[in-house]
Amino acid sequence: MKSIHSPWFCWRLKVFVAGVFLLSCLWLAWRAAGSIIVVQGESMLPNFHPNDVALAKPPPGKLERGDVVVLDDGHRDDAIKRVVGLPGETVLLWHGQVLINRRLIQEPYLDRNTRTYPNQKLALFILGKDQYFVMGDNRGNSIDSRTYGPVGIEQIRKTVPISAPRMTFTPYTRPACGERP
Prior knowledge:
The protein has 181 residues and is α+β, with helices and mostly antiparallel strands. It has two helices and twelve strands; from the N terminus they run αβββββββββαβββ. It has one domain (33-168): Ribbon (Umud Fragment, subunit A), CATH 2.10.109.
């Protein structure tokens, strides 16, 4: 009968423990550091431009109004939008203004004269307990909750901290071999 303390068993146990430790470290590093996203499209102008690069982190336990999120909006790629309505609230789009629970909200991240109109005839949205109302900052050129309705918490993949550094990369084509720029 083999002893539980045989050299073979001890070696396998050490490899297993080291593997679990390594995976735990990698998971913690991913949670802490987040991931890099590249903004596509103009729906978040003027705050995020096409080709801006930002650091995105997994969502915290609770989202706040004004948070920038990366979400699955049902299209091919994930979208970047801003949280406007929180669970349990009523969002009303009226005369170009956004009202939450019948109160006008201030949106300091938008240009001064930005007007928000519904994309459909429906301009009243009642959010469920795990639903958020999201919109792009470029209200005239954004497909968002005004079109596809409130999004569930399970659709929100990441958040983009407002203080996160952003970089913009301009498209550049390298000259062919032997040519000068």
